[in-house]
Design brief:
mainly alpha
């Protein structure tokens, strides 16, 4: 009996470790979702943007699909999906707004926003995981808050920094150039949350299983 109990405990511990390890690995479904959402972000960039201000940084639907990627896929897969989109654009595919592509985009006023997209998807995904795991009431409101925090702290902050570096603007001018994007992001984040809530309702384990 004394020998059997340790053996049973060891077997149980090994099983738990294997299960935890398997949850950390991406499955074929995960890779498929990453590819689908990368394509979704690229497709949203095809829709003509609205240039804003003298710098011509456009308002596009990309931020909507970036936030949606994080809200649906979580931090890791959201980062991978949007990161794949950005890498393909850097590699030469004309999938940035206005059909732009290549590393030359890093010298434009839009550079900060593009660099921020994968980071924003990861931040939104992390916060969405916390919301899905811990809340039931007012979940949509919390998801909207997660998207807005990520938009302001990551996308707008790096966007302002990019304009300061590449357009040689001081902070105040860069901030004023960024402000017209905020109302649109509010509306896009509302839409992203509505879509994400519908997806979570239809496929309740799409994100939950990643944060259990």
């Amino acid at each position: 009996m004394s020998q059997t109990q340790p053996d049973t405990a060891a077997t149980f511990d090994a099983t738990v470790q294997r299960t935890a390890s398997s949850r950390k690995r991406w499955t074929a479904t995960d890779l498929g979702l990453i590819a689908v959402f990368a394509a979704l972000v690229a497709a949203s960039a095809i829709v003509p943007g609205i240039p804003v201000g003298a710098l011509g940084v456009p308002i596009t639907l990309v931020t909507l699909t970036v936030m949606l990627s994080g809200l649906v896929l979580g931090a890791g897969r959201g980062f991978a999906a949007v990161g794949l989109y950005v890498l393909l654009g850097f590699a030469g595919l004309p999938i940035f707004s206005g059909g732009r592509s290549g590393l030359g985009i890093l010298a434009t006023p839009s550079a900060g926003y593009i660099i921020a997209f994968p980071l924003a998807a990861a931040a939104t995904g992390y916060l969405a995981g916390v919301v899905i795991r811990r809340t039931v009431k007012f979940r949509a409101l919390w998801l909207f808050a997660a998207a807005m925090v990520s938009s302001i702290v990551v996308i707008h902050a790096l966007g302002i920094l990019g304009m300061m570096v590449n357009a040689k603007l001081d902070f105040t001018k860069a901030l004023l150039a960024d402000l017209p994007f905020v109302p649109g992001d509010v509306l896009k984040n509302v839409l992203a949350v509505i879509i994400a809530m519908a997806i979570h309702k239809a496929f309740p384990d799409v994100l939950v299983r990643r944060v259990k």
